[in-house]
Amino acid sequence: MNRTTSWPEGHWGWPVALTHKHGVRCGQMIFTGGQVDLDSAGTVRNPNDLGRQCAGAMAYLSDVLQDLGADLADLVRLVVYFAGTGPEEDRILDLVADHLPPGAAPVINMVCMPDLCYPGMLVEIEGVAMRGETGERLARDSIHSPALPPLRSPFSHVVRCGVMIFTGDMAAIAPDGTVEHPDAITPQSAEMMDRLGAALDLAGADFADVVKLNVFYTGDGNAEEWEPPARIRADRFPDPGPAATGILLGGFSRPGQMTKIAATAMRGTGGERLEKRFSWPDGHWDWTMKLPYKHGNLCRGVIHLGGQVSLDSAANVIDPDDMVAQTRRAIDNIETVLTDLGAVLDDVVKVTTFYQGSASAEALHDNLLIRSSAFTEPGPATTGIPVPNLVYERMVIEIEVIAMVAAG
Prior knowledge:
By secondary structure, the chain is of the alpha+beta class. The protein folds into three domains: 1-138, CATH 3.30.1330.40; 139-274, CATH 3.30.1330.40; 300-408, CATH 3.30.1330.40. It has helices at 50-67, 86-98, 185-202, 223-234, 323-340, 361-373; strands spanning 4-6, 23-26, 29-32, 75-83, 107-113, 123-130, 141-143, 158-161, 164-167, 210-218, 243-249, 259-266, 277-279, 296-299, 302-305, 348-356, 381-387, 397-404. The protein has a six-stranded mixed sheet, with helices on one face. Strands 7-8-9-12-10-11 form a six-stranded mixed sheet, covered by helices on one side. A six-stranded mixed sheet has the order 13-14-15-18-16-17, with helices on one face. A hairpin with a 2-residue loop joins strand 14 and strand 15 (302-305). The chain is globular and about 50 Å long. The model has no long low-confidence stretch (mean pLDDT 95).
């Protein structure tokens, strides 16, 4: 499928040569990589200064969108990874809102991390935007509901644009901001899924329309703790179900919160269910319990893959603690799923990587160079996020991708 990539003049860069670009456009869809306050040599410009870093990241995001024929008003989703706690989250929401033009009302997903990839970096912001192929603005429904977890203006709980539906963060948080069932992940998961269902319903969709899930949770990460909430989430979906990525965090900004979820769904503009193809290649890795999720799906030319890892079909970690070997295997698994869906690695438009590490260039570059080398120049947009741990002991990397092909 024809695509346009972006690397605006004077934009920030990595200190190593890569195929990745800052943004990719295919048709109406525009994906940016995580934008950060670095200079062209890959040095943090305003270490530990949250206000200036937010301003720098949003300015870079605007430049990428403009280079691809869009602007901040075309955003349908923002994802913000930040180092900090509750007060920082509230401040970032205000800072980001200050940079959005009138009429912009994207969903926003906030992910609290202990560190980001370089020392002194506090925030990384990526976006999804939609703009007509001949330059026209696209009609959208930006929905804000008082029945869902509190969310300040101008952000939306759900955005629908054409067949695409995006939700903000859904969690066991009451409209007054109270965390329900504090420190209890299983009942929180049930409340969270109720809210996700309500959000989808506002956009005329349901769980069967979901193509991608991103789940964040906290805890010890052992099977006894992970499986009950996983079953609660899974029971809402038909089989075959969406692609999914689950990431273990060190905590959330609200005391007592244990989990949150965000979804992408696709539903016909006339209310019709859209046809999907699902992928579970023979011999592919699996979880320790039966779940409805598939490794990938294709709908209207958009391919979503769940996080790909270095496991076998019995959920045993392959190449424990070896970042290089696990990165290569994750890329091989991505290629296998794409092939099963009639695509290739160079159809990928966005890569998101969660890797075990801290604020260290070495930890990032160990996997960044390998995954970059899998793509032909110009490559996809990318975001790389360090996490304290992944769900299985000695698993050190998880990579998800979005690809686009001509709609059949």
